[in-house]
Design brief:
heterodimer, A: mainly alpha, 2 domains, two-stranded antiparallel sheet, B: Rossmann fold, Rossmann fold, six-stranded mixed sheet
């Protein structure tokens, strides 16, 4: 029985990690390439979740809901890039934090005005609502398997785009020396808008996947934003590969901590103190992991090579 | 000269205020109006508004205003809201409070200020026991009692392998402790989830692995919706029966639909409870707001009416704190829960029922009353309360 639980909890961890990765990938691209701290990334995640939940409830088509969510986030992302962020690139990080924090408040309030304070219930399409036997007698929710598959796919696609295509080359070049890229005749403003739009779409994708699992509510982006920052700090800022590995690491550590820390502590502590120490320690575990990683590798596990 | 005159006038006003009835009453109502707990707050606010409306907007004949504050399910925010109500709005009563951790955070400042604090839900063991105070009352319950009732019921059904799960905060701990106090079978696991956690996949995996005969849970509001949804997605629905407290109630039943039917709860109230006060309340509430009220609405409704009875008893003289407290202690209202008295710790002595979720003929979902488990029951902590009765 024990190995099977370990396998299942491992899958749970990978699934959580994949959702974090989709969120962190956009964040790390924007941070790494454009040197911009975007706290409003969580708002784009929220927009993805809301638009998909509402569109699915009203049209009944899941594909249409996905398309609507991604397009809405793309539109909002491009709009705020042009209106807000273009003036922020040359500014200090503190200015960027202030401005994007303002955007968080703005979007949370807008969402509350349109859809109210009560959380929406995001439904799943029928074909994802069931279970699949990963091993005989071990059913696993098919939706969670779909998240894992999609996360892997997106990770591979991003890796190929960044390392194997002309756009990817420009993105990497823009990250290391934006003035030189501009001097070579590349429209750097357009490139930045493109990267930002890509980040917005990734955030929305993460949000629409999270909708049926977490509550779709105003401010839902902030909790996951903190974790996404932990991921990119551990992974190394600007590195897609780092974000992928760090997200998996965090997902698995968090899940294993929640599942096994309490029984582990129970083997050498009084049950009552294990009951209170277990959950408390489990929720600290990822931050302790971050502290340890930063102590030994302040630049993260896989820092982007040039900076 | 001028200042002397003003001082004289204000002194006169103060004396006048001391002997006369107040001309306005302000109730500071703290609840949760946003986030996953926001639905509970909506039930409370709607019921408090209904109760005040039925009293013509007056408590004991004095025009009354309810000032709502959103604690966002955060103790620190709740404390800020309470202090603002005490200092800026100068409220006469503080009412509401869903969460035990919020109640504990606001408890000392409010109790210390001498203002009467009336909880409509939160009943942590500390407040029921050693920390009890004359100016604290609750129209709700002591956290652990419904769980104690559930333990008694599950013993009677010979269920002897149970998996317990609750959020990791004051009330979650109180509730599991209460369950363990009466439940005699084997508790295969007790799992505490983060209070902001809505993804239960890790816990569901543990549940399947533990293979219990039944699950005992407390996951209020939207947490309950998420739990049942994921329980269903994991293919456990219909395989392991669920017994809950303050979870499968009218707040989440419309969202659960048929997935909730048949789940057992224990509680002191249900919209299906047959007594005239309750039938009137439920009918008017449903007519006005077009949804079925849950226990949070019932306690909020009782709360406003209880304050009204106390203000009446002191003839509107709100300075007479002793008189107000004595009047509250009489619980002189026709409570929607039926029999209702106060214990020495100012917690209710009331009945606790076994409830079962049913699909009603009119299409709504509510908890029907199956049987009475505890009659005129107080709680397990009142003996630790050293307050003079």
């Amino acid at each position: 029985m024990q190995p099977l639980i370990l396998l299942e909890q491992g899958l749970n961890g990978i699934q959580f990690g994949m959702m974090l990765f989709l969120m962190a990938a956009g964040l790390t691209l924007v941070f790494g390439v454009m040197n911009l701290i975007n706290l409003a990334h969580g708002s784009l995640y929220m927009i993805g979740a809301y638009v998909s939940a509402v569109a699915f409830a009203s049209t009944g088509s899941y594909l249409l809901a996905i398309a609507a969510a991604l397009l809405a986030a793309l539109a909002v992302g491009v709009a705020i890039e042009i209106v807000v962020f273009r003036t922020l690139y040359p500014r200090e990080h503190l200015d960027q934090v202030l401005a994007t924090f303002g955007l968080i408040l703005f979007f949370n309030e807008i969402v509350r005005m349109i859809w109210g304070a009560t959380p929406l219930s995001a439904n799943l399409p029928k074909f994802l609502g069931g279970q699949i036997n990963i091993l005989p007698g071990v059913p696993y929710p098919s939706y969670r398997l779909a998240i894992i598959a999609l996360g892997l796919l997106m990770g591979l696609a991003l890796y190929l785009v960044v390392t194997r295509t002309r756009i990817g080359m420009l993105i990497r070049a823009g990250a290391s020396n934006r003035i030189m890229v501009g001097a070579l005749g590349i429209n750097i403003a357009l490139l930045y808008t493109l990267v930002f739009g890509l980040g917005a779409v990734l955030a929305a994708l993460s949000g629409l996947l999270a909708g049926p699992i977490f509550a779709v509510e105003s401010g839902m982006g902030e909790n996951v934003l903190i974790l996404a920052f932990v991921v990119i700090v551990i992974g190394g800022i600007g590195s897609i590969r780092g974000a992928f590995i760090a997200a998996l690491l965090i997902g698995i550590v968090d899940t294993i901590g929640r599942a096994f820390l309490r029984p582990l502590l129970g083997t050498f502590m009084a049950p009552s103190s294990a009951d209170s120490a277990g959950p408390a320690l489990a929720s600290m575990l990822i931050y302790m992991l971050m502290a340890v990683v930063l102590f030994f590798r302040p630049q993260g596990l896989f820092p982007a090579r040039v900076r | 000269m001028k200042t002397g005159l003003i001082a004289a006038i204000s002194a006169f006003c103060l004396i006048a205020a001391g002997t006369q009835a107040a001309d306005q009453i302000k109730i500071g109502y703290i609840t949760t109006l946003s986030g996953p707990g926001g639905a509970l707050g909506k039930h409370m606010k709607d019921a408090a508004d209904l109760a005040l409306e039925k009293l013509g907007g007056k408590l004991g004949g004095i025009p009354t205003e309810i000032i709502y504050g959103d604690d966002q399910l955060k103790p620190d925010v709740g404390r800020q809201v309470a202090e603002e109500m005490l200092k800026k709005d100068k409220v006469d009563f503080i009412d509401g409070v869903i969460w035990s951790n919020v109640l504990l955070a606001i408890y000392q400042p409010v109790i210390g200020s001498g203002t009467i604090l009336l909880s409509n839900s939160a009943g942590p063991q500390e407040v029921a026991g050693a920390m009890c105070a004359p100016n604290f009352f609750t129209t709700g319950w002591q956290n652990a009692v419904p769980a104690e009732a559930m333990g008694i019921y599950m013993n009677s059904k010979k269920i002897d392998k149970v998996f317990a799960m609750a959020p990791n905060y004051t009330a979650g701990k109180d509730i599991v402790a209460g369950f363990k106090r009466t439940y005699k079978g084997q508790l295969v696991a007790e799992v505490y989830t983060r209070l902001d956690q809505t993804d239960f996949q890790t816990e569901l995996t543990q549940m399947r692995a533990a293979d219990p005969q039944a699950i005992f849970i407390f996951e209020p509001g939207a947490f309950g919706i998420q739990f049942f949804k994921q329980f269903d997605q994991a293919g456990l629905h219909g395989k392991i029966p669920v017994y809950s407290v303050f979870t499968t109630n009218e707040i989440i039943l419309p969202a659960l639909g048929d997935a909730g039917v048949g789940v057992y709860e224990t509680g002191f109230w249900s919209p299906a409870l047959k007594n005239p006060a309750n039938q009137e309340f439920v009918a008017e509430f449903r007519k006005k707001y077009n949804y079925v009220p849950a226990e949070y609405a019932a306690t909020a409704y009782d709360g406003i009416r209880l304050l009204d009875s106390a203000v009446k008893a002191v003839k509107g003289d709100l300075k007479n704190k002793k008189g107000l407290i004595a009047a509250l202690d009489k619980a002189n209202i026709a409570s929607v829960r039926g029999p209702f008295k106060y214990n020495i710790n100012h917690f209710p002595i009331q009945n606790y029922y076994l409830l079962k979720v049913a699909h009603e003929a009119d299409g709504s979902y509510m908890r029907e009353v199956e049987s009475t488990i505890l009659t005129n029951y107080g709680d397990s902590y009142y003996k630790e309360c050293k307050m003079k009765p």
